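Researcher: Next sequence.
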Amino acid sequence: MAVQVAVCGPSRCGERELTLAYEVGRLIAQRGAVVVCGGHGGVMGAVAAGARSCAGLVVGVLPGADRSGAGQDLSVAVATGLGQARNNVIVNSADAVVVVGGSWGTLSELALAMRRGGVPVVRLGDGWRIVDADGREPPGVLSARTPAEALDLTGLWD
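Model: Next structure:
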């Protein structure tokens, strides 16, 4: 079975996040893995476009009960009818989770991935930075500056 990498991020984001997401999608496809994402625009649309530019497979896990609004670069659109609870499906379907940018939905995906345990979680670029009461980052979330570094940190291709 192919490696599956969830790429999570907001539907509304800046050019930097779009560029990072596109490149990480392209690299995932080049490495022969499947992209799993939320299936809409923004980071989700950019990662899908990047993967499809290299003939990659992209699975979009949609919040609605039908495929309306699904991104044009998806290979497969899964209509869940779960709303934001679909975030749990996304992170549980992945061998690693890469988070690009930040929104409330992205924060929930990050938290769900960390609670799941057993899979690498990588924050790519700027975005949510979680700190404890003493201002320290809790262990577990890895940080990467580039898409290639993000994928290398997952350890999936060692």
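Model: The domain at 4-154 is CATH 3.40.50.450 (Rossmann fold). The chain has one domain: 4-154.
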